[in-house]
């Protein structure tokens, strides 16, 4: 996929101490192909490459000690910018109810997203009302009612014999009467964009004056999703896009092109059929995900609440100098443990994912207890320089910790791998100052 391809490109750059114009050109050719292959809009790719190239050939890069990383940083920033820069929040009306109107083709995920949004708003302490505005698709009303029941959120319906515009009008009135703070209008879709659909949506729009018009598009349809977004936007002036089915085998092109083509930000992404599979869209996180940097920002956010900043700084220094010992390993485990389920945390750290598969490293919390026991059974000399831990020392450690030789062996192997990874990570740090933002 896109991530693998980009990682290959950057893998070549990463080790380089000096970078020539040819290196940049080669890399940009590969990035261009990778983006096109991921079904990113042609014009978007062209502009993107132009911008990155201009910056990559600048002075800052050639004078850096780690030009490869600086280029990755540039690509990361431009990708983030391409997707809107910062997170776009839902509009809110100062005089409730805030009206959210859903739009999109049939099967894109409007009704499901309506339910998911309702759940999200409810969790934030709001009282949404859902309006069943799809009178055409058989069982569409029922589908919304079932979702409403699951969530304990009321659904306003007038059956399928009243016009959607009238349903929307009366639904909104009901929300005002009953003091709901949010209204979400589910609407009908078609297989293709047609006049009649647009006319109806425009009427609902005129009638309810929504604060938010969310277009729901299926990420799996790639370029088509973007074209659909562009046509809807011409007629309906959208305020945001919801990209669904990102859990499927998508090539990523839609996420990268929507904002550039329509000017309309992606506000949410959906990653599954379940009601809690909706997430606010963070351009910077998506960019690092695409670049295979792991979801470092989510991790950092989590870490900020759980990790002692001074200790983190010290750890960073050690990583930079590759001075990592078993004591640090243990301490880091302790800190990471406070962040949440370890498996989830590991997934967010670059490289960890692969390492987990490679060494079938299992990190449940019980395991951590055993790891701690092993490390505690080491002498301080062993903790400082694990290289001295030979066979007989390993056996002693296993006995001392009440574990097995195999477990001790495995831990030492994991430690070595981790150390290697730390080296890699430290190579990604910009030596001129602070952490490289590409991480
Ligand atoms: P609508 O016609 O636009 O209202 O689409 P629906 O909400 O009825 O969704 C169509 C189908 O797509 C349903 O089977 C949903 O469960 C499924 N669906 C919606 N969003 C997602 C998603 O993010 N991931 C996956 N895998 N399926 C989704
Ligand atoms: Mg529907």
From TrEMBL:
Domain SRP54-type proteins GTP-binding as annotated: residue spans: 265-278
Enzyme Commission (EC) number: 3.6.5.4
Matching PROSITE patterns: SRP54 (PS00300)
Subunit structure: Part of the signal recognition particle protein translocation system, which is composed of SRP and FtsY.
Catalysed reaction equations from the record: GTP + H2O = GDP + phosphate + H(+)
Subcellular location: Cytoplasm
Keyword Membrane: no
Enzyme class: hydrolase
Name of the protein described by the UniProt record: Signal recognition particle protein
Binding-site positions, GTP: 104-111, 186-190, 244-247
Family: Belongs to the GTP-binding SRP family. SRP54 subfamily.
One Pfam family named in its UniProt record: SRP54_N
Claim: Secreted is one of the keywords in the record: no
HAMAP family membership: SRP54
Highest taxon of source: Bacteria
InterPro entries, per the entry: AAA+_ATPase, P-loop_NTPase, Signal_recog_part_SRP54_M_sf, Signal_recog_particl_SRP54_hlx, Signal_recog_particle_SRP54_M, SRP, SRP54, SRP54_GTPase_dom
Main location: cytoplasm
Function in brief: Involved in targeting and insertion of nascent membrane proteins into the cytoplasmic membrane. Binds to the hydrophobic signal sequence of the ribosome-nascent chain (RNC) as it emerges from the ribosomes. The SRP-RNC complex is then targeted to the cytoplasmic membrane where it interacts with the SRP receptor FtsY.
Keywords recorded for this protein, A-Z: Cytoplasm, GTP-binding, Hydrolase, Nucleotide-binding, Ribonucleoprotein, RNA-binding, Signal recognition particle
Organism: Saccharibacillus endophyticus
Gene3D superfamilies membership: P-loop containing nucleotide triphosphate hydrolases, Signal recognition particle SRP54, nucleotide-binding domain, Signal recognition particle, SRP54 subunit, M-domain
Written domain comment of the UniProt record: Composed of three domains: the N-terminal N domain, which is responsible for interactions with the ribosome, the central G domain, which binds GTP, and the C-terminal M domain, which binds the RNA and the signal sequence of the RNC.
């Amino acid at each position: 996929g896109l991530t693998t391809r980009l990682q290959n490109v950057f893998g070549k750059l990463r080790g380089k101490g000096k970078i020539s114009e040819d290196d940049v050109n080669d890399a940009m050719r590969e990035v261009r192909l990778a983006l096109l292959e991921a079904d990113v809009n042609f014009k978007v790719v062209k502009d993107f490459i132009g911008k990155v190239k201009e910056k990559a050939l600048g002075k800052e890069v050639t004078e850096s000690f780690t030009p490869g990383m600086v280029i990755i940083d540039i690509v990361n920033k431009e990708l983030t910018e391409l997707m809107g820069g910062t997170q776009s929040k839902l509009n809110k009306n100062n005089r409730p109810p805030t009206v959210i109107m859903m739009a999109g083709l049939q099967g894109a995920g409007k009704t499901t997203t309506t339910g998911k949004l309702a759940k999200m708003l409810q969790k934030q302490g709001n009282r949404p009302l859902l309006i069943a505005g799809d009178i055409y698709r058989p069982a569409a009303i029922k589908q919304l009612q079932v979702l409403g029941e699951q969530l304990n959120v009321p659904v306003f319906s007038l059956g399928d014999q009243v016009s959607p515009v009238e349903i929307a009008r009366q639904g909104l009135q009901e929300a005002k009467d009953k003091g709901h703070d949010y209204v979400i209008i589910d609407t009908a879709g078609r297989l293709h964009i047609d006049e009649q659909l647009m006319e109806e949506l425009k009427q609902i729009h005129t009638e309810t004056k929504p604060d938010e018009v969310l277009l729901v598009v299926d990420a799996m349809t790639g370029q088509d999703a973007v074209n659909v977004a562009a046509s809807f936007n011409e007629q309906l002036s959208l305020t945001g896009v919801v990209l669904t089915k990102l859990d499927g085998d998508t090539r990523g092109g839609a996420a990268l092109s929507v904002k550039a083509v329509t000017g309309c930000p992606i506000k949410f992404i959906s990653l599954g059929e379940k009601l809690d599979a909706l997430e606010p869209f963070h351009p910077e996180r998506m960019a690092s995900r695409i670049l295979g940097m792991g979801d470092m920002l989510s991790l950092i956010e989590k870490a900020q609440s759980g990790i002692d900043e001074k200790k983190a700084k010290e750890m960073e220094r050690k990583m930079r100098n590759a001075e990592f010992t078993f004591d640090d390993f243990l301490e880091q485990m302790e800190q990471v443990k406070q962040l949440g389920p370890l498996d989830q945390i590991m997934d967010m750290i670059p490289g960890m994912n692969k390492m987990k598969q490679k060494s079938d490293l299992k990190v449940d919390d019980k395991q951590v207890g055993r790891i701690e026991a092993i490390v505690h059974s080491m002498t301080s000399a062993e903790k400082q320089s694990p290289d001295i831990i030979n066979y007989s020392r390993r056996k002693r450690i296993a006995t001392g910790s009440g574990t097995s030789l195999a477990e001790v062996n495995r831990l030492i192997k994991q430690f070595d791998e981790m150390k290697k990874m730390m080296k890699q990570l430290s190579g990604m740090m910009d030596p001129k100052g602070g952490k490289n933002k590409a991480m």
